[in-house]
Amino acid sequence: MDTLRLYFRYVGISVRAQMQHRASFWMLAISQFLITGTEFVAVWAMFDRFGTLRGWTLPEVGLLYGLIHVAFSLAEGAGRGFDVFADQVRGGEFDRLLLRPRGTAFQVAAQEWQIGRIGRLTQGLLVLLWSASALDIAWTPARVGLAAGAILGGACTFYGLFILQATLAFWSVQSLEVVNTVTYGGVETGSYPLSIYRPWLRGVFTYLVPLACANYFPAHALLGRADPLGSSSLFQWLSPLVGLLFLGVSLHVWQFGVRHYRSTGS
Amino acid sequence: MKTPLSAYGAVLEARFRTLLQYRAAAAAGFATQLFWGLIRVAIFTAFYQSGSAAHQPMSLPEVIDYIWLTQAMLMLQPWGVDPDVRNMVRTGTVAYELLRPVDLYWLWFTRTVAQRTAPMLLRAVPMLLVAGLFLGLRPPASPAAALGSLLCTATAVALSSAISTLVLLSLLWTVSGEGISRLMPAASMIFSGILLPLPLFPEWAQPVLQALPFRGLADLPFRVYIGHIPAQELIGVLLHQLLWTAALVWLGRRVLVRGLRAMVVQGG
């Protein structure tokens, strides 16, 4: 409880600091809204031309798109600390964190919330809400819960990826942008039904980076569609939990990395 | 102000050489773009297999060529400003730039040309090779298309540099510059064809897309390469790119004059 309070104190400071630059904040938020919004324009243009994607309609794909974008924006905003972590290792500033009486993952996590990411969040939410109302789904509490669970599961998975990316910095302070293939690439892949991809790509996003568990599988339960990949209804309802598992594993890898940390000195 | 061209040549060469050193970043970028390309090919293939592919303005193999060219030429796009100049404006060392015996616009333009070409070359060469050998990128439609697309790409460098320099100059006004430097990539992403091949946009949007400068950055060179724009129409294509480049250079120079008048050098 105390940890949680401290976390939000940290976050509050970060948010207030960013709000000092109000014009800058709005610029960032609005531009991110527009930039990420262009992606949905492209999706819409393709449906305008082709009508359907392997039997999926625009609102159905919009549901996938909304779920993954909202999940990503939450993780991106909250996981900023891990995003800039490599610089801290390079500069030797991580040593300071090791001296404080709190966990390292906690301190890195709490040091910044990037509120400008609200641009992508808004865009994803708009698409999600539009799809949710355009689709013929009875929004029972259970289904709303599942949608929220899918978003949280996805956010946990992305957050875990940020942690893993930061952990790599313990071994190499070289460019770590390869991880972007599964974060940004995961957003792109997850914006469309997993069944359209080749088996190896499906495997990557089901077993290696389980984003499909926060997106494709729960979406089938929401839509009441039969999954051509053959997942069971029970699995679809439980699949968001895999995101929590992934986050847990990532935190363990982080601890492993911390134990192998050697300061750059300077 | 008359300066021998060799001064700009030296700046270009120095920046180009410096930027060619970032090979690890290029390797990572290459991997990312390759993966991204595979995803995009899968998505477009699925769309073409779902709807009526016969009546589309581009065939699937043409779209696949377009995608791989996009992945190869991504760094040519006017995204991100020269970090050194951004720092100069922020810290006030931009004052030194004003003292140099060269025209500031062309100095920054030259830096930008290096910024747009060196990282692009590092990624484009392996990407074209890998995509050409294994991933379905076909060679240019004809010798004329090959030559034409090379010419168009060269003018695209000039166009992209003119846009980037304009964005760079907008940084002289701190806050609005930040907005412009963020919004320009969004505009170029959607209107250049990077996000979606321009012919696939709805018919009603085509006149707008054709008038804007951004299609000269990607869509035009790519479609000349593919043969989707016949080589006879090359003159019109080049003219579109060059006129826009000239207009943006003119605008950039005007902005610079006003910017210098308004500029307050930070720091002490």
The number of distinct β-strands of chain A equals 0
- Based on secondary structure, the structural category of chain A is mainly alpha
Output the helix-strand order of chain B. Answer: HHHHHHHHHHH
Assembly form of the protein: heterodimer
Major β-sheet annotation of chain B: none
Task: Estimate the helix proportion of chain B, in percent.
Answer: over 70%
- Rounded to the nearest angstrom, the radius of gyration of chain B is 20 Å
Q: What is the count of DSSP helices of chain A, taking H or I runs of 4+ residues?
A: 14
- Largest Cβ-defined interface: A-B, 38 and 35 residues
Q: Kindly name the structural category of chain B.
A: mainly alpha
Query: Which geometry of chain A do the CA atoms define?
Result: globular
Number of strands of chain B: 0
Unreliable parts of chain B: none
Q: How far apart lie the N and C ends of chain B?
A: 28 Å
What would you note in describing this structure?
- The complex is a heterodimer of chains A (266) and B (268).
- Helices cover 72% and strands 0% of the residues of chain A.
- Chain A is mostly helical and 266 residues long.
- The mean pLDDT of chain A is 88.
- Chain B has 268 residues and is mostly helical.
- The radius of gyration of chain B is 20 Å and the shape is globular.
How do the strands and helices of this protein lay out in sequence?
The complex is a heterodimer of chains A (266) and B (268).
Chain A: H1 2-19, H2 22-50, H3 58-78, H4 80-83, H5 85-91, H6 94-99, H7 104-110, H8 118-134, H9 141-168, H10 180-190, H11 199-208, H12 216-223, H13 233-238, H14 241-259
Chain B: H1 5-20, H2 23-50, H3 60-73, H4 83-91, H5 94-99, H6 104-134, H7 143-170, H8 174-192, H9 206-211, H10 219-226, H11 234-262
